[in-house]
Write a structure and sequence with these properties.
Elements (H helix, E strand, L loop, with lengths): L1 H10 L5 E4 L2 H10 L3 E4 L5 H6 L7 E4 L4 H15 L3 E4 L4 H7 L2 E2 L4 E2 L1
Parallel strand pairs: 1-2, 3-4
Antiparallel strand pairs: 5-6
Length: about 110
């Protein structure tokens, strides 16, 4: 899912950093597109700091884990004051408890 997001953003000239907990996909993203890559878990503050979260205007979390996506967005907001965050959440029960909104294409907190 990440490449469907990072590719168009990079082509538009956005400063994109990809975080992946597996080195190979992170390396491929950096080589294929004009993006920076960081290996690690996006919910860890040190990884977000290494990725430049302190200067980020937007964080998009699209891992396979709803919980990881929500935690990454919360950490980015709480520790780095990232104002805009999007978490892919596939289980709508998570959204009902968090007070988030849902659209057919994506779920946002």
């Amino acid at each position: 899912m990440g490449t469907t997001i990072d590719r168009p953003l990079a082509f538009e000239g956005a400063n994109v950093t990809v975080i992946d907990n597996v080195a190979e996909p992170a390396r491929r993203a950096a080589e294929s597109f004009d993006v920076t890559s960081v290996v690690g878990r996006a919910s860890h503050s040190g990884v977000l700091e290494k990725a430049g979260a302190q200067n980020a205007g937007l964080l998009i979390a699209v891992t396979r884990s709803d919980e990881l996506n929500m935690v990454a967005c919360q950490v980015a907001h709480s520790l780095f004051s990232v104002k805009r965050r999007v978490a892919r959440v596939r289980h709508n029960g998570d959204l009902a408890r968090s007070g988030g909104t849902s659209t057919p294409a994506t779920n946002c907190l």
